[in-house]
Amino acid sequence: MSQHNPDIQPPHQPHPNEAIQPTGPDFVEMPDVVSLPDAHEPLPFWIYLVCGVALFLAGSSFTGFATFGMGLMDQGPGGPAITSNKGAEVAVTDPVLLGKKVYSGNCANCHQSSGEGQPGAYPSLVNSEWVLGSKERLAAIMLHGISGPITVKGASYGTQVMPGWSTVLTDDKIANVLTYLRASWGNTAGPVSADEVSAARDKFGSQTAAFCEADLLKIAPHGPDPTDKK
Ligand code: HEC
Question: Is residue 6 part of a domain?
Fold first, then answer.
C-alpha cells in the first residue's frame, strides 16, 4: 500500500518534446566547446613563407648569391668536395729529404747535384773519406770550412775555399745535410744528429779561420767513426 503524501511532488519529468528553458529546473550550463582545428587543415601561410625564405638563403649561399651580399651564411668560396693532395703542404720529417733541400740550396752549385764536384776545384762528396769518416770532423768542416791543400780520394785540391756555415745554417740543417751526404750517391754511413752538431759547435767555438787539412786530421784520423750507427 502506498500512501500519497501531497507535500511530496514527483520529480518533474519533462516531456521529450519540451524545450529545456535556461530558467527551467533541468538547465545545466555547459562550458563552451572550443572547436579543434581539423587535422588536415592547411598550415598557416606564414610557415610556408619562413621555410621558403630559409631554404632560399641556405641554397643561395652555395650558389654564390651569398645572401645578397650580406654573407650571413657564406661558407667561403665553394670548391670540389674531394680535393687532391697535390700542392698540399705535407710536413717532411725525413732528415735525408730535409737535408737534400739544404744541399740543393747551399752546396750543389760547387759540389754539383751528383755530389761529384768539379775536378781540380771542388772535391767529390761521393765515397769521400771526409764524408764517411768522423762525424765530429765532418761537423767541424761544415761549421768553419776548409782552406789550403787537401787530399780527397787521392786527388789534391786547394785552389778554392770551402766556406764555413756556422752563422748561416742551424744545427738541425747542418745535421740534416750531413745525414743526406752520408746516405746519398751510394754513400752508406749513418746519420748525424743536431746534438752532435751542437757539441761540435761548442767544441770548436773558438775557431775563427777555416781549418787546414792537418788540423782536421788532428780532430780524427781517417777511418770509420766508432760511434756511427748505420
Ligand atoms: C763555394 C763553393 C762551395 C760550396 C758552396 C760548398 N763547398 Fe764544400 N768544398 C768546397 C771546396 C773548394 C772544398 C775543398 C777545400 C779545399 O780545397 O781546401 C770543399 C770541401 C768540402 C768537404 C770535404 C772534402 C770532400 O769532398 O769530402 C765537404 C764534406 C764539403 N765540402 C761539404 C759541403 C757541403 C755539405 C756544402 C753545403 C752546405 C758545401 N760543401 C758547400 C767548396 C764549396
Answer: no
**Residue 230 included in any domain:** no
Place of cell 703542404: 89
List residues bridging with 211 in a β-sheet: 146
Tell me how far the alpha carbon of residue 229 lies from the centroid of ligand 1, in angstroms. Answer: 24
Compute the half-sphere exposure of residue 43: CA atoms within 13 Å on the CB side of its CA.
7
3-state class (DSSP) for residue 119: coil
Say what the alpha-carbon torsion angle 127, 129, 130, 134 is, to the nearest 10 degrees. 120
User: Which residues does 41 contact at the CB level (< 8 Å), separation at least 6?
Assistant: none
Q: Based on the domain organization, do 123 and 159 belong to the same domain? A: yes
113, 127, 136, 162: residue to mutate for ligand 1 pocket, most atoms within 8 A of CB? 162
For the whole model, what pTM was predicted? 0.69
Q: What is the pLDDT of residues 105-150, one digit of tens each?
A: 999 999 999 999 999 999 999 999 999 999 999 999 999 999 999 9
Cell triple for 156: 789534391
Domain harbouring 188, CATH code: 1.10.760.10
* Residue 8 Cα to ligand 1 middle (Å): 136
> If you take atom 19 of ligand 1, which residue's CA is the nearest one?
162
Which ligand 1 atom sits closest to the C-alpha of 169? 38
The Å distance, Cα 14 to ligand 1 centre, comes to: 127
103 Cβ neighbours under 8 A, 6+ residues apart: 113, 177, 180, 181
